[in-house]
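Contributing: when you submit paired examples, paste them exactly as shown. First protein:
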Amino acid sequence: KNILTVGAVEPIESGYSRKEDVILGDFSSWGPTDDGRIKPDIVADGIDLISPIATADNAYANLSGTSMSSPSAAGSILLLQEYYNKLHPGVFMRASTLKGLVIHTASEAGSDLGPDYQHGWGLKKKKKAAAVITSNNTKQLIQENILNNGGVFSLPVIASGEGDLTATISWTDPKGAVETTNILNNPALKLVHDLDIRIKKGATIYQPWILNPASPSSAAQKGDNFRDNVEKVEVTDVIPG
C-alpha cells in the first residue's frame, strides 16, 4: 500500500500537452490489486532509455521496461526531497508526503478524467511538483499532521481562481491481514486506517475520485474511497474568494 508503483509509457518528444499524449507501454502491468486499490500509482517514461549495463564499466544500452520507468521516477523524486531539504534545512518530507506530492501533481492520462487502473493517477511531472514546494504556504500548501483515531482536521481555504482547487491526502498505512485461505484473487480490503478527505463549499460537498474494481475499465467517479491510502479531490467550478 505504501510503495509508489510506476508504470511505463512512451517518451513524449514534444512535451505533454493533453492526456492523449500519454501512451502506455504494451508490457506495463495494469491494476487493480485484488482488493481494488489503484495500481500503478503513476506512470513515467520507460521506453528506449539509455541505461548502464553490466558488460563493462562504461557500457550503455537502450532499454525498455518498468525497470526503466521506476528508477527514472525514483531519481526525480529524490531530487524533490533534496529540494525540500534545501528550503527547509534539516527537514525531509515523510514518505507518504512525498508520495502524495507526486500523485497530487501528476498530469492527466488515459481516456477519461481521474485515475484509472492503467495509468494510475497520471504522468509524473517533476517540475510541477517542485513548484508546489517552491510556493508552499502561499498558493500551495504542504502540511504534515497527526490525526488521532476518530479525529477531524479542518482547514479554511480561499480560492485564488487561478485554476482548479485540488487537495490530496496520503498516509502510511499499517500492513493488512495476510490471507491464509482463498489466497488467489481475494477481494478482502487491506486498508487499516480509512482516512477521508472532503472539500466543502456552503452546502456542497466534493468527494474524492474512486474506481470500481468490479468494472475496471469504467471511468473514475466521485465518492467515498475506502480502499486506497491516497485520496484526491478536484474542484473545477471554483469562484475567486
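Second protein:
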Amino acid sequence: MAYYKDIRECLEALDKRGLLRRVTRSINKDTELMPLVRLQYRGLPEEQRTAFLFDNIVDIKGKHYGGSVAVGALAGNEAIYAIGLMCKPEEIMEKRANAERRPIEPKLVKTGPVQEEVHIGASLLTHGGLEEFPIPISTPGYDPSPAFTAPFWITKDPETGRRNVGTYRVLIKSPVKTGIDFCRPTRGVAIHWNKAREMGIPLEAAIVIGGPPSLGYCSVVDYPVDVDELTMVGGLAGEPLEVVKCKAVDLEVPAFAEIVIEGEIITSELEMEGPFGESIGYMSLTQPRPYF
C-alpha cells in the first residue's frame, strides 16, 4: 500500500507510535474540546505534541453524539506529518516534490464506504442534517457557531472542468446550510465561484470530512490554477486516488472518506459571517461571504 486510503488507517498508525491521545471520558464539544487540544500548542515543545481522538462527545445542552472527533491528526508535529505521508521526516520535501513532478489521475470506482449511508431529498434531515455530527466550537465565547476546521472542499472550474481541493472554514448556519470563507480571491474555489457567478449559475461543491491524509496535505497548497488538484493527491499518494461520483452534484470524491456533504455555493447573494477565532491568534471580522 502506497498511502492510507482513509483517516482510520492513519489514526491506527499514530496510535501504534504513541502519537495519539484517545479520550474516552465525556467531553463537551462546545466548551472543552478545542481549548484542551490547544494547551499542548501553548505549553509543549513540538516533538511532544500528539493527535487527539475524542470518542464520547456531548454538547452544551447535554446531547450525546455517536461519532468521534479527531484533532491534530495530520500535522501536530513533523513526525505526525511524516506518518501521514508514510515516509521519514527528512523525506517529506522530496515526496511533495515528486507529487508535482508525477501527478496521477484518480481512479473512478463504482462504490465505496463513503456511500454506505446516503441521505438525499426527503431523507436529508433523517438524523438532523448537519446537526447529526459532533462539530466543535473552536473559540468558545467568541465564535457564533460550531465549525469544521479541516474540511476539504472539492469544486470544478465551470469552464475547464479542472478540480480544486481547498481547506476553507465551514461555519454551521443551519442543518442544511454553512458558510464558506475564501480568504482571498486567488484561491481556487474563489476563481471557480466568480466564473460561476458570471455565468449566472451556482457553484457545485462537496465537503470531504475525514478523507485520506494525502487529500488533506494537497488541500492546503495553492497549486497553479491550471492544475487538476486530484492528480496532485495521486502524485503524493504514489497511486491513483479512488473516487466515486457524487449523488447530487457532478463531482468526484474519495471513496474512503468518512463524510461527504454535497450541495451548491450560491453566487447570487452573500450573507454576513463571523467573527471567528483564527488558529494563529486573532479574531476575524464579521464580513459578507458566500454560503453553501
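If you have annotations for the second protein, write them as plain sentences, like these:
The CA atoms of residues 272 and 288 lie 4 Å apart.
The radius of gyration is 18 Å.
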